[in-house]
Amino acid sequence: MTATARAQSPPTPHTEDRLDSWKEIASYLRRGVRTVRRWEKEEGLPIHRHLHQRLGTVYAYRNEIDAWWTARGQNLEQQKDEPKESQLGRWLAPALGTGAIVALMALAFVLWPSRNPTPPASPGRIMLAVLPFENLSGTPDHDYFSEGLTEEMITELGRLHPERLGVIARTSTMPYKGVNKSASVIAAELGVDYLLEGSVRREGDRVRITTQLIRASDQTHLWAQNYDRDLASALDVQSQVSRAVAGQIQLALEPLQLRRSSATQNPAAHEAALRGRYFLERRTADGIRSARDAFERAVRLDPSYALAYVGLADAHILSVTYADAPAKEAMTRAREAIVKALELDDELADAHAWHGVILAEYDWDWAAAEREFKRAVELSPNFAYAHKLYGEYLSYVGRFDQAIAEVRLAHQLDPRSIVTTSLVGIVLYRARRYDEALTELERAIALDPEHPMPYLPKGLSLSMKGMPDEAVAALRKGLSLTPESSEMIAQIAYASARGGRRDEARILLKELRERSGKGHVSPFLFALVHTGLGEPAAAVDSLEKAYAERDWLLCVLKTEPIFDPLRADARFQNLLRRMNFPA
After folding, report:
1. How do 18-19 and 58-61 pair as beta strands?
2. What pTM value is reported for the model?
3. What is the band of 471 on the pLDDT scale with cuts at 50, 70, 90?
4. Which sign does the torsion angle of CA 342, 346, 351, 354 carry?
């Protein structure tokens, strides 16, 4: 049923007139639970509560909802007529393929005036957030599908008109999954002008996707649409929705901005890739291994699926950090996957970004790496992760003003991400701007005090400010959250030695050696401790071992403040030259 049909006729009556839960009410209205909760709060949806029970126990009467819906439909101008893009698709569907229909829809939005002619309140770049699509399939086993569609929608919208439309990254929107907040609160927290929300219902080989666009300034529902598809044709929904949203926000799409899709037309391959992305975001050893298996299945099912090769490369790269994979083997396989992805589609921003990581962190080919990062940003200016990776690269080579600008841009596109917020602090730390770094790291900690990432650069910044007790306290907090982290132990040892507690540092150094007898511990970490203890020869010896292993941690060698006491050492300078750092 189209949005127009939904507005013109109330839901079909049932024999029993009462709906006894949020889920039943949402199902009756064919919307998500989050939407109907907001409708109650902001638009007067008639909901009753059992006064003798907890507040969350609700019920509603169909006849009251029908009356409310009719009145609401009369007041919403944008739902009086069936959207012209829906008419166009229905008229042409028997004669044309989906790709042609999508292109004509885009043209329709340029030629036909918007039903909501009021321009956005804020001048310049418009900001949009795609909230996590709700899984209405009745089982959490399908979360990977709704999360995957959310991420693909973000990617699709981010390509449309990046000069005018900024799209918030998934890491900042996923925390809103299942959260009962008003549209105005979410928009204020994310700093956006518009919200896109939706739901997904899987039933066998069919999928029903519901979407609606909300203007944050007055919480007006500008547009809504339902899509009933089989899994094969569901892949086209992202393109249809993104162009419909663009029309409502009054963006004129130039024909040259419409690029071919790298999606697969194989439903099983697409589903495997969605599973891979879902597992990848778990950031655990088991999750990374499961992601790798899923992407390998996707490329077996469709060897021309470029995005699946990008996911496979991503899994191999992250396996070094999260699954103790040998760097040489993992990076070799990652390179093979990325090269294949670029052969299939040289305009994939993700592929260029990860290629830049391999060139920088494993090959130490800094010039080639920068070309790849620049290409990724050029292809997808809304791709927050590309700005993050490029900013980190710039901090490796010492171009701090540019690095700070890039990571701040990444933060603008991903404002609720602990990783991105922490990275702003890390780059400021490498630039020796310790007070500013601490301000950013406190913001990251405020987002989630139980996330370990901000505590390490916080401890380092405090140590560089001559506050060893506070530094060790911050690092020990981080270690309590990641007890398996050898890097936290090494940094505690460094901060202790720098603060004069050499005996404590040597005890921790002994613990690192014991760990290295049971598993791999990077020689780079031993170099940190020896530097803190004032043992430059031993520190450089450890760095040479890290060089022999092609340890990616050496990327920070040129700009890491900890190694400032070693910079006059001839062996250290020789190591920098062999790593090909630009002057």
Report:
1. antiparallel
2. 0.65
3. very high
4. positive
Q: Is the dihedral of CA 66, 72, 74, 77 positive or negative?
A: negative
Of 6, 32, 1, the C-alpha closest to 198 is 32
Paired tokens of 157: 């919208």
Q: How far is CA 192 from CA 114, 159, 186, 350, 414, in A?
A: 21, 17, 9, 24, 11
Residue 78 has pLDDT above 60, yes or no: no
Are 427 and 441 contacting, i.e. CB atoms less than 8 angstroms apart?
Answer: no
In sign, the C-alpha dihedral spanning 187, 188, 190, 192 is positive
| C-alpha to C-alpha distance for 20 and 571, rounded to whole angstroms | 74
Radius of gyration (C-alpha) of the chain in whole angstroms: 26
Helix (H, G, I), strand (E, B) or coil at 167: strand
Q: What is the tens place of the pLDDT at every residue in 55-73? A: 457 888 887 787 677 666 5
Which amino acid is it at 537? A
- On whether the CB atoms of residues 158 and 182 are closer than 8 A, the answer is no
Q: How far apart are CA 398 and CA 556, in angstroms?
A: 9
Backbone phi, psi, residue 166, to 5°: -100, 135
Query: Which tokens is 103 given?
Result: 């292109």
Strands 194-203 and 206-215: antiparallel
Orientation angle between helical segments 366-379 and 384-396, nearest 10 degrees: 160
* Alpha-carbon dihedral sign for residues 263, 268, 271, 275: negative
Rounded Cα–Cα distance for residues 305 and 262 (Å): 7
Residues 6+ apart with CB under 8 A from 481: 450, 451, 452, 455
Is 559 in a helix, a strand, or coil? coil
Decide if 580 contacts 550 (C-beta within 8 A).
Answer: no
- Output the pLDDT for position 122: 38
Task: Give me 383's structure tokens.
Answer: 């791709």
Beta bridge partner(s), residue 406: none
Across the range 383-404, mean pLDDT stands at 94
209-242 tens-digit pLDDT:
788 888 888 887 877 777 777 766 655 665 566 5
* Dist CA 510 CA 514 (whole Å): 6
Under the banding of pLDDT at 50, 70 and 90, the label for residue 491 is very high
Look at residues 562, 570, 524 and name the one whose alpha carbon lies nearest to residue 546.
Answer: 524
* Residue 113 φ/ψ region, left for φ over 0, alpha for ψ in the -120 to 50 degree band, beta for the rest: beta
Cα 459 from Cα 425, distance rounded (Å): 12
338 backbone dihedrals φ, ψ, rounded to 5°: -70, -40
